[in-house]
Amino acid sequence: MPHNILMPRIMEVGGGALDRLPGVLAALGVQRPLIVTDRMMMELGYVDRAQGLLRDVGMVSDVFADTVPEPTERSITAGVEKMRQGLANGQGFDSVVAIGGGSPIDSAKAIGVLAHFGGEIRDYKFPHQADQSGLPLIAIPTTAGTGSECTRFTIITDDTVDEKMLCVGVGFMPTAAIVDYELSLSVPARVTADTGIDALTHAIEAYVSRKANGFSDQQALAAMRLIGPNLRIVYHEPDNRAAREAMMLGASLAGLAFSSASVALVHGMSRPIGAFFHVPHGLSNAMLLPAVTRYSIEAAQQRYATCARAIGAANAANSDAAAVRLLVRELLALNTELEVPGPAAYGISRDKWQAALDTMAEQALASGSPGNNPRVPDAGQIVALYETVWHQRM
Ligand SMILES: [Fe+2]
């Protein structure tokens, strides 16, 4: 069976790649971008630097810096409006440059598509497919995490019903990605851990997904080999450039992998935790990853054993049965070392958790992601897994 593979048309990868921004825009035939970002990126000076680079070659840009973590429908409306208004000189924007973690990039994807094609973001919710490209989007990630610079997805929360909407299609695949690990050197430890576990989850889920294919397998394995040995290092040694570079590359490769193979049950169950309890995306993945892996192993032991060896939790001498046990042990140990709290330690009340279980299970199933899992659960099994995660000691 043939597989549909989408990738950015241009990727600039490596330390200092940000300097290539003007050349990337020129190669795409555009010169008037709206930069979509957040306040932190302004404070860090990344936006000034990008605008300076553009000014040096006579390109005009403007900035929308009001994106929020875990973006909502409401939070992107002002960005769509700004996009439609155009530049102060009366010219329209011809492209979007996203600078930041997953949230600014996901926001920029939604803003670009809505400004170009119209409608509301809920019109684009899965299973709808955004099958046309809009304006060129250049994604510049500053965390080694979501891989959004290399995926055909965006996630926007419908704040009227607390649901994270998965939106899919070629319209959400960036035209270009500038993957410069130097931008990740300033990321604080907590965010480094959460986004790093998100990237690891992408690679594992892409590899065990029912939609895995020969192309995605290679990206996923390469990502695991880069992330496995480096995740603890970047958490403890934020200035370790070699580890930061490996993590950044690993996150982008994991993005390519799950963009064609999809994610699975961890992500399906993670989004409702984010929507209901405002837990950062990578952190809710981390809470779920050991328990969901243990649950899923029986349906894909060989695949999980290969994951264990790729991340360095097992070696070639271990049998598959031993390797998968070592994988679960490693995922738990990783959560302990990276200080991942359980839901209770995060501050979620027991009553609210229990009250939300049925709706969370419903939303998880509706997202389609659990259907990609090697072992496909029903609503009751998802509720039981949420309960396991509540009681699990991290
Ligand atoms: Fe993710």
What's the helix and strand layout?
Layout lengths: L9 E4 L7 H7 L5 E4 L2 H5 L2 H11 L5 E3 L8 H13 L9 E6 L1 H16 L19 E5 L11 E6 L4 E6 L7 E4 L9 H20 L5 H14 L3 H6 L4 H21 L3 H13 L3 H16 L4 H11 L8 H18 L5 H4 L3 H17 L12 H13 L3
Helix pairs in contact: 4-5, 6-7, 6-9, 6-11, 7-9, 10-11, 10-15, 11-13, 11-16, 12-13, 15-16
The structure holds fe (ii) ion.
Fe (ii) ion (FE2) binds next to α6.
Structure description:
By secondary structure, the chain is α/β, with parallel strands linked by helices. It contains 16 helices and 8 strands. A 6-stranded parallel β-sheet has the order 1-8-5-4-2-3, with helices on both faces. The protein has a two-stranded antiparallel sheet with strand order 6-7. Helix 7 (214-227) runs antiparallel to helix 9 (241-261), helix 10 (265-277) crosses helix 15 and helix 15 (350-366) runs antiparallel to helix 16 (379-391). It binds fe (ii) ion. Residues 146, 198, 202, 267, 281 line the site of fe (ii) ion (FE2).
